[in-house]
């Protein structure tokens, strides 16, 4: 179902060179399963696909249907792991050009940044539309989604009065956090995130599933994808043929040869946010203790006309992993014209998909010739079940790769630094002294 193709990377690593990395990766995989590695209190995601209960799935679908029936827009509020998974899947599978109505609402996102203009325009836009909210925060205390919810809850109350609470579904911790207290006080329907599942591994919980259901997607297909690949990955003890173990080994080998940046590339713009999700997964899991591969992303062929120059001829610190679906949902054939004014008649009878595939192969050859090893992650198509398998593949590989690096792939201590400074500069109670010190530093006296 998921295949790791290495034909454009094989000249960069010999079997003998990869061997110790494969062996470390298999040890890391076993550590994951024996639950005696770092961060072992956050391994709930590992067997989650087998644990999702039918009644919980049904409740998600029913509750989403309830919002869909009364909404032209559903706003999903969340950031990081409480945002990127659902956004990635929705962007990948929904039509590019969508028509929306009550009963088939559009999905908008908020709470993933702090730009004032966005919120100003969002409030203006929602003023005359029937809307509902799914607010997601595991901790229930993250500032960005809390601010977005404060603004949109205010609008909801103004529009619907005592009916506002019925238009909110909250996804949060089972017992703690400000969002949980808010939900209890106002009587929102709630879904919970298991304690042992961290944000960036939570796409298969209501964090990811509710927004998909709100968009009217068959979430069981997505769950099926996870279930379908789980045993293949768990049971394959051969680190060469297990694509997740091999991917983890290759990444760490490339890192050991000075390739400190991995580019996740695609030739399908609908996969742009899959890369965003992947960047968070690997960036937060591995980038710590002065270690880790920097996860970057590019959308081809668009970026071949910008960053492609660097990839081809810049500093040789890169390797590339290309998301490669084997088939297209739809295609167009190029016709001939009598005048051939654009000189494209040589393409007559070819599909755009065929042209894109030749661009893909040509790019991989060129990048490999230019000194950039290229891996391909091959999956059948851009459907919910294939994406479910792809997401689990990356989660599993990321945990293994993090253990190979020797870090805890399940914490993110570095995220606190900017928050502390922001709270200090905003004079949050308890941070006043730090605020004064920071202002002094900023002003330079
Ligand atoms: O992966 C993570 O744990 C983080 O990216 C969180 O998902 C993100 O910080 C949002 O946190 P929360 O869901 O608690 O609001």
UniProtKB/TrEMBL annotation:
It is an enzyme of class 5 (isomerase). Transmembrane segments: none annotated. PROSITE patterns: P_GLUCOSE_ISOMERASE_1, P_GLUCOSE_ISOMERASE_2, P_GLUCOSE_ISOMERASE_3. One of its GO terms (biological process) is glycolytic process. The active site is at residues 284, 419. Pfam families: PGI. Its EC number is 5.3.1.9. It catalyses: alpha-D-glucose 6-phosphate = beta-D-fructose 6-phosphate. SUPFAM superfamilies: SIS domain (SSF53697). Keywords: Cytoplasm, Gluconeogenesis, Glycolysis, Isomerase. GO terms for cellular component: cytosol. InterPro entries: G6P_Isomerase (IPR001672), Phosphoglucose_isomerase_CS (IPR018189), SIS_dom_sf (IPR046348), SIS_PGI_1 (IPR035476), SIS_PGI_2 (IPR035482). Its main location: cytoplasm. One of its GO terms (molecular function) is glucose-6-phosphate isomerase activity. Belongs to the GPI family. Catalyzes the reversible isomerization of glucose-6-phosphate to fructose-6-phosphate. This is Glucose-6-phosphate isomerase. It comes from Leptospira gomenensis. The gene is pgi.
